[in-house]
Amino acid sequence: AQRRNFAQAAAMYADAYSRGERSAELAFKTHTALKSAGRVQEADAFIARFEKEQPQAVAVQAYLGDEHLFAGRYTAAIERYQKVLKHQPQNALVLNNLAWASHQVKDRRAREYAEKAYALQPDNPVVLDTLGWLLVDAGQNDKGVELLQKPFTQAGCAGVKGVLSGSKGIVMMIQDLLWARSQTATSGCCCCCCRLTGPRHCR
């Protein structure tokens, strides 16, 4: 039933496309609907055709970069993100994703991209996460953990408790790093908030 709904949505979007609509949003929706309906090859053929017809559609390049990134096709993702940056060199999220993709293929420019993203959006949790882990992987645990903790410290204890359920993997890794550098012993308190943000935020 769910696939049938996606197929119906894809048909509706295809009709809009046939009537001349060429927005990037329509391209995203059509591609997603076709994939969700199990028509992956058709989805990829559609987005390739759209890209050929609209080579300057930067949003489509960013979308395809994300598709490649999430699928683990890092080299293809890098190619897409670099195309976007030629038109939008200050796009922090694209820089951030380019940093992560580059890190996966051991490109030394990964940190440079991550630092540029951080300079543009220093409070963005996604950007903080990427640069934080790049620093940790480079052996700079103190600075890396500081960045990884930042979204939690800014939120305070109530905010931390609100996001823990969706971030358990990250929380556990941060806690392990904190433990490794002997910073988790905080006045005998063992709650996750205290271990992530320090006792001054725990109340």
What topology emerges from the helices and strands here?
Layout: H1 2-18, H2 24-36, H3 40-53, H4 58-70, H5 74-87, H6 92-104, H7 110-120, H8 125-137, H9 141-163, H10 168-180, H11 192-197
Helix pairs in contact: 1-2, 2-3, 4-5, 5-6, 6-7, 6-8, 7-8, 8-9
Structure keywords:
single chain, 203 residues, mainly alpha, 0% strand, elongated
Envelope shape: elongated
Distance between the termini: 48 Å
Supply the helix-strand structural class.
mainly alpha
How many strands, what sense, and barrel or not for the largest sheet?
none
Average the pLDDT over all residues and give the rounded result. Answer: 81
How many DSSP H or I helices?
11
Order of helices and strands: HHHHHHHHHHH
Roughly what percent helix? Answer: over 70%
Strand content: under 5%
Rg is 21 Å
Let me know the number of strands.
Answer: 0
Poorly predicted segments: 160-168, 182-203
Overview of the structural elements:
The structure is a single chain. The chain is built from eleven helices and no strands. It has helices at about 1-20, 25-35, 40-55, 60-70, 75-85, 90-105, 110-120, 125-135, 140-165, 170-180, 190-195. The longest helix is centred in the C-terminal third of the chain and has 23 residues, at about 140-165. The radius of gyration is 21 Å and the shape is elongated. About 30% of the residues are buried. Residues about 160-170 and about 180-203 have low confidence and may be disordered.
